[in-house]
Amino acid sequence: MNCKSSLEDWRMGRVIADKVIDDLKRRKLVTKEKSIWYSLKKGPEFVAKRKTLATDVTREHLKSGDWKDLEFKDYNYGAQGQPIAIGYSQPLLEVREAIQNIFLEMGFSEMPTNMYVESSFWNFDALFQPQQHPARDSHDTFFLKAPATTTQLPDDYLEKVKQVHQSGGHGSKGYGYDWKRDEAEKNLLRTHTTAVSTRMLYKLAQEKTFAPKRYYSIDRVFRNEAVDRTHLAEFHQIEGLICDYGLTLGDLIGVLEDFFSRLGMSKLRFKPAYNPYTEPSMEIFSYHDGLKKWVEIGNSGMFRPEMLLPMGLPEGVNVIAWGLSLERPTMILYGIDNIRDLFGPKVDFNLIKSSPICRLGL
Ligand code: FB9
C-alpha cells in the first residue's frame, strides 16, 4: 500500500489500518496530532440581552417606581457573611487564662511579675543557690551591661544570707565558701519566676503576724540556652506555692494531684530530683493518652530552711512549690510541633486565626 493512496483514503475519510499508520509514522511521512473540537449551541436560559437581577431595593428604585418590574436575584441563604474583623487571642494567652482561672479557683493570688530585670541576690543567693553554681554563669544567664549592678538590697537580710551560704545555721552547715556581695549585686534577666516568690516570701516574713498564703505566677523567664524545637531563650514559667505551718511532702503531692487533674492530667508519677533551693525535690510526670507516653510536666519541692529562716519566717512554717512552662502544654494542646510556630517573629498569623478556643481538663 503506497502512501499516496493511503493519504487519499484519509482525505476521503476512509479508515486507515493502524499498521499502515504506524508504517507511515515510522517513515516520518505523517505525525499524529490531537485536536479537540467544541460545538457551542444556545442553552435553555439563552437570551439576547441578559437581564441583571436586582439584589437590593434601593432608594432610586423606590423613587423611580421601577422596582415593580425588577427581577430579584434569589436569596443565597448559604452565603458566608462578611468576615468580621475581630481580635484573636494568642494560644499562649488562651492557656494562660485557663491556668490562671484554675489557680484562682484554688484560692491562689497572683504575684507581681512585671520586673524582668532582677538582681542575682533575689534570683539566686536568697534561694540558697551558691555563687559558683553553673547556672550562675553567663552560659546560662543573661547578665546586664547597664545597669550592671543593683544598690537596693536589704542589708540586714543580706547579712543573714551571707551567713547561711558561708557557715549555715538552722541545722545546716552551709556551703563554706567566701560569699561575695558584688556577685549578688549583679543584675540579670530573671531565669525563673521563683525570684519573685523569694521577694514575696521575704515580704510575708516582714509582716508582724504570719498568715498562710497561696501565691502563683505566670510570666516570662530568660535562659541563655541552645534554641531547639521545644526551647527558646525565653519561655513563660508557671509557678505555684503554699506557705503554712506544718506543710508536708504529702500536702505537695496532694495539691499537685488537684492542680494537674484540673488540667486534665490525672495519672501522675513523681521522680526524686535536685534543685539548690528545695529539698526534697520531685520531677512530675503524667501519662498522656494522646501521645501514649509519660510526659515530664514539671518540677516541685519544699523550699529549704536555709532559704526560709534567714527571711524571718517562723519556725515550723514550710513552703511547698512547683513549676512548669506555659509553652509545653500549649504546644501539646494545640498540636504545635515547633515552639517557633507558637512564639516569636515566625508565628504564622493564620495559625492564630484558625486556633480553636482552648478547652482544658476535658
Ligand atoms: O512544662 C513542662 N512540661 C509540660 C507541662 C505541661 C504539659 O501539659 C500537656 C497538656 C498535657 C506538658 C509538658 N516542663 C517544665 C517539663 C519539660 O518540658 C522540661 O524539659 C522543660 N521545662 C522547662 C525548663 O527548661 C529548662 C519545663 C520548664 C520548667 C521546669 C521547671 C520549673 C518550671 C518550668 C520549675 C520549678 C520549681 C521547682 C520547685 C519550686 C519552685 C519552682
UniProtKB/TrEMBL annotation:
InterPro entries: aa-tRNA-synth_II, aa-tRNA-synth_II/BPL/LPL, Phe-tRNA-synth_IIc_asu, Phenylalanyl-tRNA_Synthase. It catalyses: tRNA(Phe) + L-phenylalanine + ATP = L-phenylalanyl-tRNA(Phe) + AMP + diphosphate + H(+). Tetramer of two alpha and two beta subunits. This is phenylalanine--tRNA ligase. Belongs to the class-II aminoacyl-tRNA synthetase family. Phe-tRNA synthetase alpha subunit type 2 subfamily. GO terms for biological process: phenylalanyl-tRNA aminoacylation. It is an enzyme of class 6 (ligase). It is found in: Cytoplasm. The lineage of its organism: Eukaryota, Viridiplantae, Streptophyta, Embryophyta, Tracheophyta.
